[in-house]
């Protein structure tokens, strides 16, 4: 499949492909191609057929939903170290005709820290996202946000929890919109990939697909093995 066609997964997968009727690398290539290029499932069905793989578009949908989240969970933990100055913001995605919220954060150099799809944009959602980021990335020096009251309350909640655990210094909160330009610009890649999809039919499908899109975006930003074929980097995350 282009330069990556001869690649065979040799190491033991952490993600189970037990019961799959297709080779692991075929499944991974299909998932990678969908989240990287934003094609429709029917387009991907034709692309796979041109490469000698006959697979129904509904099966492709199941693969993306099943494997993207699992690979993203691994990617969040395997990515390289990030700066302790963070930028956090949320963008909008349509699911079943309604808007939901994609929480995203990058460091001051634009490296992805974390992401989370939420049905609501409120204090509990913001607190959950901040706690999730801390679990994976450690303590930041500061977090830059916009003037959202929910995000402000979320950071205050996290600081209360940290104080309860004996953390001597709170996380500095900076509420200056222009400093958040880097994460707002980073949203563009995600939007560019989701726009041709014309919305999602379920929250589960949206969360899985967006997780896969975030992973290939991290690969583009060199957060894993720069210089290696992007598909191979994606496949390595499942190994």
Automatic annotation (TrEMBL):
Purpose: Involved in the transposition of the insertion sequence.
Record carries keyword Amino-acid biosynthesis: no
PROSITE patterns according to UniProt: INTEGRASE
Pfam families recorded: DDE_Tnp_IS240 (PF13610)
Residues of the Integrase catalytic domain: 77-238
Entry-linked SUPFAM superfamilies: Ribonuclease H-like
Protein name: Putative transposase
Gene3D superfamilies: Ribonuclease H-like superfamily/Ribonuclease H (3.30.420.10)
Transmembrane segments: none
GO MF, one example: DNA binding
């Amino acid at each position: 499949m282009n330069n990556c066609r001869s690649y065979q997964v040799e190491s033991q997968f952490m993600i189970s492909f037990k019961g799959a009727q297709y080779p692991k690398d075929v499944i991974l290539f299909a998932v990678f191609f969908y989240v990287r290029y934003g094609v429709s499932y029917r387009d991907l069905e034709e692309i796979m057929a041109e490469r000698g793989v006959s697979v129904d578009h509904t099966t492709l949908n199941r693969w993306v939903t099943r494997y993207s989240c699992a690979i993203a969970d691994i990617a969040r933990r395997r990515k390289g170290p990030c700066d302790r100055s963070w930028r956090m913001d949320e963008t909008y995605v349509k699911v079943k005709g309604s808007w939901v919220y994609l929480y995203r954060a990058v460091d001051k150099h634009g490296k992805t820290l974390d992401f989370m799809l939420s049905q609501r944009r409120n204090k509990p959602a913001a607190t959950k996202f901040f706690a999730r980021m801390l679990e994976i990335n450690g303590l930041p020096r500061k977090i830059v946000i916009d003037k959202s009251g929910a995000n402000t309350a979320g950071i205050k909640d996290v600081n209360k929890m940290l104080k309860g655990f004996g953390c001597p210094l709170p996380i500095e909160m900076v509420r200056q919109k222009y400093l958040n330009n880097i994460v707002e610009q980073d949203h563009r890649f995600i939007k560019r990939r989701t726009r041709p999809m014309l919305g999602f039919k379920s929250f589960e499908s949206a969360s899985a697909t967006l997780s896969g899109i975030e992973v290939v975006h991290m690969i583009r930003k060199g957060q894993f093995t720069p210089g290696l074929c992007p598909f191979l980097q994606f496949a390595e995350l499942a190994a």
